[in-house]
Amino acid sequence: MKRRFHTVRGYQLLEQKKNTLTPAMEDYLEMIYRASQKDGYIRITSLSALLNVRAPSATKMVQKLSQLELLHYKKYGIIFLTESGEEIGQFLLERHNSVEKFLQFLGVGENLLVETELIEHNISLHTLQLLASFNQFLEENPYVREQFNSFKKTLNRKASDESPTSELMQRGKSSV
Questions:
Q1: Is residue 95 a contact partner of residue 123, using CB atoms and an 8 Å limit?
Q2: For the chain, what is the domain count?
Q3: What is the pLDDT along the chain (176 residues), one digit of tens a residue?
Q4: CA count, 13 A, side-chain hemisphere, 11
Q5: How many helices (H) and strands (E) does the chain have?
Q6: Shared-domain flag, residues 110 and 159
Q7: How far is CA 148 from CA 58, 97, 107, 128, in A?
Q8: What pLDDT score does 1 carry?
Q9: 72, β-bridge pairs
Q10: Are residues 51 and 72 located together in one domain of the fold?
């Protein structure tokens, strides 16, 4: 069975840094990793735009991550991840994607990004591994997803049939 999270080193690095990295630092590192996949680097202006923060705020965070030896940054220059930063960034992106995929399987739509962000910073490695395995199971067994979606529809119908609004509508129809 193929596992999504394949590098033990990524887990070890994250564990070492877990007392050091704040959720905001993780978000920056994840975005730097995500954005630098094409060219191998990103500029502060691009990073701040992607994260919807001001450039000085992005600069301060990048300097902190540079002090942790997760990236290289020169004033007004470009940002390159170190090997350690790249491994952790990859892990963070995979974590984000696993949580997001799970929530999509559940049917979360409108607030998917918000829900993903809230969960990803608070999930244990063990639970994340289980979640990734469950995602893979659902991908390999689409009939299970179909059964779950049918089950949800049935629950939604029952809930709407049992709602007070539904009862009032039924009473209104019977008196006409």
A1: yes
A2: 2
A3: 444 454 555 655 566 655 578 999 999 999 999 999 988 999 999 999 999 999 999 999 999 999 999 999 876 678 999 999 999 999 999 999 999 999 999 999 889 999 999 999 989 889 999 999 999 999 999 999 999 999 988 888 887 777 665 555 555 555 44
A4: 10
A5: 9, 3
A6: no
A7: 42, 21, 10, 21
A8: 45
A9: 80
A10: yes
Structure tokens at 71: 């990236």
| Residue among 19, 24, 1 at smallest CA distance from 92 | 24
User: Do residue 5 and residue 22 come from a single domain?
Assistant: yes
Distance (Å, whole) CA 66 – CA 68: 5
**Residue numbers of the domain that contains 45:** 1-140
Looking at the fold, whether 47 and 126 belong to one and the same domain comes out as yes
Q: What is the pLDDT of residue 160?
A: 77
Do 173 and 165 contact (CB within 8 A), yes or no? no
Q: Residue 66: is it exposed, middle or buried by C-beta count within 10 angstroms (0-12/13-18/19+)?
A: middle
pTM, rounded to two decimals: 0.77
Question: CB neighbours (10 Å) of residue 31?
Answer: 20
